[in-house]
Amino acid sequence: MTGTTARSTAFARRAWQQQRSTAVWLAAVIGGLLAVLIFAGPGGMNTAGLDDLIPAEGTGLVSVRDTGGDLLPVTTYLLSMAPAILGMLVAVVATLTLPGVTADDISGGGIEVLLAGPVPRRALFRSYLGAGLLLTAASWIVATATFGIAATVTLLALDMSVTLSLAFGVALIVVPFSMAVWSATATLFGALLYPGSLETKAGMNGGPIRLLAVLPAMIAVPTVLLLPTWVLPALVLVLLVTLLASVAVVTLTARGFRSTKVLST
C-alpha cells in the first residue's frame, strides 16, 4: 500500500507540473460563480406554474429565506442541487486530468517498463487511479471552498438566511467523492483498454468513455437529491455502488490490459 501511495503521489506531482493547475483554477472560478448565481440570480422569481418542478415548500434539504423570512423556492431548489452540480464539476475534471496522468507513460513506452518490473498490474493501475483522485480532490476542495466563501459573502450582502440539513452536508461530501471515484475509474478504463475511445491529447474532446464517466452525475445523482425522505439511504447506496463498480473496473482493466494496444495508438 505504501508503494502504491508513493507512486500515486509521484504521478500526481508530474501531472500537476504538466497541467499547471489549470483544472484547479477552473474549479475555483466555477465554484465561486455557482454560489453567486444561486443566491443573486433568481431572487424572488415567480414560481407560478412550476410547482411540479420546483416545490413551493422547498426540498427538505435546505431552505433559503429573504429578509422578511419568506422562503425563496427557486434559490432553495438551486442550492439543493449544489452537491450534484459540484459532482458534475468533479466528474468533468477527472476526465480531463486522468488522461494526463497516463499520457506520458503510454506515449513514451514507460508503462511497459513499469509492467516489466516487480509491480503488479493492479497495483500500478491503482497508483494511476490514486493520482487522478488526488488531482480531482484538489479541484473538489477548491471548488467547495470558493463556493462556501462566495455563498457567505453573497448571503451577507443580500441579507438572506440559510438553513442546512444533515443530509445536505453529507450529500456535499458523498456526491462529489462518488463521482470523482467513478469518473476517474471509467476514464482510466478507457485510457488503458480502449485508447481510441478517449482522445488523450484532445483537451476537452472525448468519446463515449467520457460520456460514461459523467453520466451518473448528469442523471442518477440529481434524482437522488429529490427524494427528501430517502436521501441518506440513497447516498449510502450511491457510495457503495460506486466503490464496488470502481473495484470491478480496476480489476477488469488489470486483466484485460495489453501494452501493445496502447503503444500502437
> What fraction, in percent, of the residue positions are helical?
over 70%
Tell me the series of helices and strands, N- to C-terminal. Answer: HHEHHHHEHHHHH
Q: Please give the order of strands in the largest beta sheet.
A: 1-2
Q: How many helical stretches? A: 11
Radius of gyration: 20 Å
CA distance, first residue to last residue = 31 Å
Strand content: under 5%
General shape: elongated
- What is the number of independent domains? 1
Sheet with the most strands? 2 strands, antiparallel
Number of strands: 2
Assembly classification? single chain
Unreliable stretches covering 5 or more consecutive residues: 200-204
Secondary-structure class = mainly alpha
Mean pLDDT: 75
Please, could you describe this protein's structure?
By secondary structure, this protein is mainly α. It has one domain (2-263). Helices cover 72% and strands 3% of the residues. The chain contains eleven helices and two strands. Strands 1-2 form a two-stranded antiparallel ribbon. Helix 1 (2-19) crosses helix 4, helix 2 (22-40) runs parallel beside helix 6 and helix 6 runs antiparallel to helix 7. The protein is elongated and about 70 Å long. Mean pLDDT is 75; it is low at 200-204.
Helix and strand arrangement:
Elements: H1 2-19, H2 22-40, E1 62-65, H3 73-80, H4 82-108, H5 110-116, H6 121-158, E2 161-164, H7 166-193, H8 208-218, H9 220-224, H10 231-256, H11 259-263
Antiparallel strand pairs: 1-2
Transmembrane segments: 23-41, 77-98, 131-158, 164-195, 207-228, 234-254
Keywords: Membrane, Transmembrane, Transmembrane helix
Organism: Corynebacterium glyciniphilum AJ 3170
